[in-house]
């Protein structure tokens, strides 16, 4: 039983778009991720998608308009809504997803999320 | 569809131990709360209890030992585990709870959570 320090967890890896599991909440994974550049357009048919920016800035592109996020700002993409996260410079995020959610919305292209 | 700025939401109220709903994720409320002093010992039989410190420091007392949290640190109290959050100085937190969870573990003593 100890605190999970998000900066410390983020210092353990450098890959972009490769979320690491740092904890669990009611069957959801709590993840940290480093992002830079443009991800893929995707949606999650079964779950909302939670983003909290810890460092840097991201844009979540959606068909009906973009949302810009800086440190201390969060946004939840409603389930089924197509989106494409983009970061001009490296940004660090906290994500929450039901365990097993494919990061690309498609198990065939999704990364495997390691616990750290 | 816009970013939720946690500092901005926290600037809208001053009461301690009175969480405000700022968003939703898969049937969970996303809440910000200002805390100071000692809360009550309680547990949630049906849910884990998510705490992320945004500002200040808190101690989560538990029967089997305390967890100390500073900014950027999170802890999930497992469901059913008795705990008592304490903050010597005012601290600001992000909480995640299934909608309708009583903050004291008991609907008779729980505060009503307003959406802001």
Describe this structure as you would to a colleague:
The structure is a homodimer of 116-residue chains. Chain A has 116 residues and is mainly beta. Chain A has a single domain, classed as Jelly Rolls, CATH 2.60.120.10. The first copy, chain A, has 1 helix and 9 strands, in the order E-H-E-E-E-E-E-E-E-E. Chain A has one helix at 6-10; strands at residues 4-5, 20-25, 28-38, 49-55, 58-62, 67-69, 73-77, 83-98, 114-115. In chain A, strands 2, 3, 4, 5, 6, 7, 8 and 9 form an 8-stranded mixed β-sheet that branches. Chain A is globular. The two termini of chain A are 15 Å apart. The model of chain A has no long low-confidence stretch (mean pLDDT 96). The interface between A and B is medium-sized, with 34 and 34 residues. Strand 7 (73-77) of chain A pairs antiparallel with strand 1 (4-5) of chain B. Chains A, B: This is Mannose-6-phosphate isomerase, cupin superfamily. Chains A, B: Residues 37-75 form the Cyclic nucleotide-binding domain. Chains A, B: GO terms for molecular function: isomerase activity. Chains A, B: Pfam families: Cupin_2. Chains A, B: Residues 97-116 are annotated as: Disordered.
